[in-house]
Specification:
Radius of gyration: 18 Å
Structural class: alpha/beta
Family: Belongs to the aldo/keto reductase family.
Pfam families: Aldo_ket_red
InterPro entries: AKR (IPR020471), Aldo/ket_reductase_CS (IPR018170), NAD(P)_OxRdtase_dom_sf (IPR036812), NADP_OxRdtase_dom (IPR023210)
Distance between the termini: 36 Å
Bound molecules: NADP nicotinamide-adenine-dinucleotide phosphate
Protein name: Glyoxal reductase
Strand content: 15-25%
Shape: globular
Helix content: 25-40%
Strand order of the largest sheet: 3-4-5-6-7-8-9-10
GO molecular function: oxidoreductase activity, acting on the CH-OH group of donors, NAD or NADP as acceptor
Order of helices and strands: EEEHEHEHEHEHEHEHHEHH
CATH superfamily of one domain: NADP-dependent oxidoreductase domain
């Protein structure tokens, strides 16, 4: 496992396990499999409605808490200073934990303009020692700039949609300049076309690997943190087996050239659902 050091000095596994769209009933066995394979970072959210099942898998694993890195997120309807503090306590309760490693704003929802207050509540949690790190998801450069201007704690990372067909180079450049990691969600294009891409397949064949493994390797070599999701045991394992090969500069360049701006999810400025 590779670890990265976040801007507040704490270490985070560069490869984690995502659990979006995994029902609470299914998530416990999926997370148990991931932990058995070696993943130590789990990415959930209040809105995934599976924090309880994630917590159950953590408890049953017997893995020391300090060896795990658990992320959850404040949902749009819980934004605002007081509501965020309450939402954090409720997430902890569902997870059965007394802290999470990373608490994130799920979407900026600019229409409501509450993300600065929300972030200030997260700064309080951080300064009170109740969470090890704080950050954001789906923040465009203008949203990040506002936090940098109006708040004190630089987010440790920005979790955004990112895969070879939607490479997010501008956000990557901005984040790198400000010591903020990019964490890729839908790193495998949510199971989409990129897994069949012919150019990636040629690279995969040359290494005796799959398209998914090559794509994850591309993320890792770009210094991106990532959190692929799967409920299929063989894929959970496959996605973890990416530390025994390396892409050449030429192979990285070929994958870089596949970017076609193909966003799969919502644009953050248009995602104001509560
Ligand atoms: N902050 C946000 O707004 C946000 C938004 C979206 C996602 N996320 C986070 O990012 C995580 C990952 O994103 P994601 O779930 O959208 O998509 P993803 O990890 O890009 O892809 C998951 C899909 O690909 C399939 N898959 C996984 N590994 C595979 C492999 N080796 N070969 C072939 N197919 C494979 C999975 O199928 P099976 O499960 O059937 O195996 C699933 O359908 C989420 O779970 C969540 O934690 C965050």
């Amino acid at each position: 496992m590779n670890f990265v050091t976040l801007n507040n000095g704490i270490k985070m596994p560069q490869l984690g396990f995502g659990v979006w769209k995994v029902d609470n009933e299914v998530v416990t066995s999926a997370v148990a499999k991931a932990l058995e394979v070696g993943y130590r970072s789990i990415d959930t959210a209040m809105i995934y409605r599976n924090e309880e099942g994630v917590g159950k898998a953590i408890k049953e694993s017997g893995i020391p808490r300090e060896d795990l890195f658990i992320t959850t997120k404040v949902w749009n309807s819980d934004q605002g200073y007081d509501k965020t503090l309450k939402a954090y306590d409720e997430s902890l309760k569902r997870l059965g934990l007394d802290y999470v490693d990373l608490y994130l704003i799920h979407w900026p929802t600019p229409e409501y303009d509450e993300y600065v207050d929300t972030y200030k509540a997260m700064e309080k949690l951080y300064k009170d020692g109740r969470v090890r790190a704080i950050g954001v998801c789906n923040f465009e450069i203008e949203h990040l700039q506002r936090l940098l201007d109006e708040c004190e704690v630089t987010p440790v990372l920005n979790q955004v949609e990112c895969h070879p067909y939607f490479a997010q180079d501008e956000i990557k450049d901005f984040c790198a300049k400000h010591d903020i990691f990019v964490e890729a969600w839908s790193p495998l294009d949510n199971g989409g076309e990129v897994l069949q891409d012919e150019k990636i397949r040629q690279i995969a064949d040359a290494h005796g690997k799959t398209n998914a493994q090559v794509i994850l390797r591309w993320h890792l070599q770009n210094n991106t943190i990532t959190i692929p999701k799967s409920v299929t045991p063989s894929r959970i394992e496959e996605n973890f087996n990416v530390f025994d090969f390396e892409l050449s500069e030429e192979e990285m360049r070929i994958i870089d050239s596949l970017d076609r701006g193909a966003r799969r999810g919502a644009h953050p400025n248009e995602m104001n659902v509560r």
